[in-house]
Amino acid sequence: MKSLPYFCRGEVIRGFGRGSKELGIPTANFPDSVVDNLPADISTGIYYGWACVGNGDVHKMVMSIGWNPYYKNTKKSMETHVIHTFKEDFYGDTLSVVMVGYIRPERSFDSLEALIAAINNDIEEAKTKLELPEHRKLRDDNFFTGTPNGSSALPPTTTSVSQTIMNGH
Fold first, then answer.
1. Left if phi > 0, otherwise alpha if psi is -120 to 50, otherwise beta: which for 23?
2. Any residues with CB less than 8 A from the CB of 115 and at least 6 apart, and which?
3. Could you tell me the pTM of the whole model?
4. Active-site residue, selected from the candidate residues 11, 22, 79, 134
5. Catalytic annotation on 113?
6. Which of 2 and 121 is assigned the larger pLDDT?
7. Where does the record place the region Disordered (predicted)?
8. What is the domain extent for residue 154?
9. Is the bond leading into 133 cis (omega within 30 degrees of zero)?
10. CA 160 to CA 117: how far, in whole Å?
């Protein structure tokens, strides 16, 4: 995927409400404007990378892009699980992410338990891969410094600008 690493930013919106409640794995959801601006070569599946809420710390993350076949969604989504325990929800805050690599295609599962096990495996794989030097360096990318905190005048979606920034490195 030539578009990786891919940088994007947007407001955290309410999703389907399944991540925390059903799965025990909370996710932050991007609005359609961010999902619709993904490059054509970013296929559906599970990705790993770095994420920052507002102007906070940068944490490891995994992201599902697609239709979540287990739930038979009819709308494509981008659901980010930031590998960090937050004290409270951050709906309305700005989430900045850099997608670094691809783990696997999306697929359906025979049970909720199998889905949860796969997500936990994805999280462990992301933690390991993000320790590689070529991935760790993106944690400190200037994309994350000065990140808007949700009240900034910057537009909530900066996908095309962010890709240009990366290409300029």
1. alpha
2. 23, 70, 109
3. 0.84
4. 79
5. no
6. 121
7. 145-169
8. 6-167
9. no
10. 34
